[in-house]
Amino acid sequence: MLDYDEEAGAYDARRGGEARATAAADAVLGLIPEAAGRLLDVACGTGIVTRRLAAARPGMRVTGADLAEGMTRLAAARLPGAVVRADSRRLPFPDGTFDAVTSVWLLHLLRDAADADRVVAECARVLRPGGVYVTTVDKAAAHDVGSDIDAVLAPRPRRPAQDAAGTVAAHTARHGLHPAGRASFPGLGQGRSPRGTIADLRRGWFTLLPPGDLLTERFAERLAALPDQDRPRADPCFSVRAFRKPPAG
Question: What CATH number labels 4-143+158-190+235-244?
Answer without folding.
Answer: 3.40.50.150
